[in-house]
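pls design
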């Protein structure tokens, strides 16, 4: 179950996601918030901008947050993203020891946090963060849907 604070964080991630439209990247936004509620980092998808297949919003936000925190261990932190993370991002989230993940739209084709796979809550993995999905799901899905619709026209 999510809180009003989770909704506010997803709204912030949506703001960040919209900046990806400048470079025609898929509009996904992510942020990492420290245990004290301070935003450590925010990033949008930048695969097109950087020519990097790993430049997903989550990975970029985790890298920036680790730099700010001075450690790759982000225990106590929350990662917020507008769409359910893929397997690569879920793996990075687990390796970074993030304590909580909050996401917006479910992604039934590539989602790895409950839809297609559930990498973060698999009992075989060492680190299992709390996961809250579907926060402002319709708004997050609409941003993605409108992006892809505009690409088809």
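designed seq:
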């Amino acid at each position: 179950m999510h809180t009003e604070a989770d909704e506010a964080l997803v709204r912030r991630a949506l703001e960040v996601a919209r900046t990806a439209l400048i470079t025609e990247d898929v509009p996904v936004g992510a942020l990492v918030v420290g245990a004290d509620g301070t935003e450590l980092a925010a990033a949008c998808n930048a695969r097109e901008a950087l020519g990097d297949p790993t430049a997903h919003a989550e990975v970029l936000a985790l890298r920036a947050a680790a730099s700010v925190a001075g450690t790759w261990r982000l225990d106590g932190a929350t990662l917020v993203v507008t769409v359910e993370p893929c397997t690569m991002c879920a793996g990075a989230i687990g390796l970074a020891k993030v304590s909580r993940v909050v996401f917006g739209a479910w992604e039934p084709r590539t989602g790895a946090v409950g839809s297609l796979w559930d990498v973060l809550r698999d009992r075989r993995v060492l680190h299992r963060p709390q996961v809250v999905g579907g926060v402002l799901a319709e708004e997050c899905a609409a941003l993605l849907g409108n992006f892809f619709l505009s690409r088809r026209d």
